[in-house]
Specification:
InterPro entries: Globin-like_sf, Globin/Proto, Hemoglobin_trunc. By secondary structure, this protein is mainly α. 56% of the residues lie in helices and 0% in strands.
Length: 156
């Protein structure tokens, strides 16, 4: 918990168990989606678990993604040359939020506002990092998200 006694977003969502349920079910939906399934056709069997660990760290949970995989630079590398589009990005966010509703994850306005803020910010970076010529900053810090985050422009 943070020093103020306010739970982290990670704690509020239900920890790694909730995020694993979310990403597992979400990628089941992705595989059935005509727009997104081609992007994830070659997805590793552990992809959902990796994304859950990444989200956990971003939302204030343990830094296990960084320890195991190399943090944000590793995630950026996964998006290089994927040629993601805005329609794909919007569908990804839409499906993730629909899955959160399906699994009855917290839907209070404060949490959902923070979650949507991160998903919008992060998915837009994924699109930027998937275009030709995008490069990985090996020193890029892991993003962290809280209850009222704002971020400056991406200067990649």
């Amino acid at each position: 918990m943070q020093s103020s006694g306010t739970p982290t977003l990670y704690e509020w969502v239900g920890g790694i168990e909730a995020l694993n349920r979310l990403t597992k079910r979400f990628y089941e939906h992705v595989h059935a989606d005509p727009l997104l399934s081609p992007v994830f056709a070659q997805m590793d069997a552990s992809h959902a678990e990796h994304v859950a660990a990444f989200l956990a760290e971003v939302l204030g949970g343990p830094a296990s993604y960084s320890a195991q995989y190399g943090g944000h630079p590793h995630m950026v590398r996964k998006h290089l040359d994927r040629h993601l589009t805005q329609p794909m990005r919007r569908r990804w966010v839409e499906l993730l939020l629909a899955t959160a509703d399906e699994l009855a994850l917290p839907d209070d306005p404060e949490f959902r506002s923070a979650l949507v803020g991160y998903l919008e910010w992060g998915s837009r970076l994924a699109v930027i990092n998937s275009q030709p010529g995008a490069a990985v900053d090996p020193d890029a810090p892991m993003p962290t998200w809280g209850w009222g985050e704002t971020k400056g422009p991406y200067l990649g």
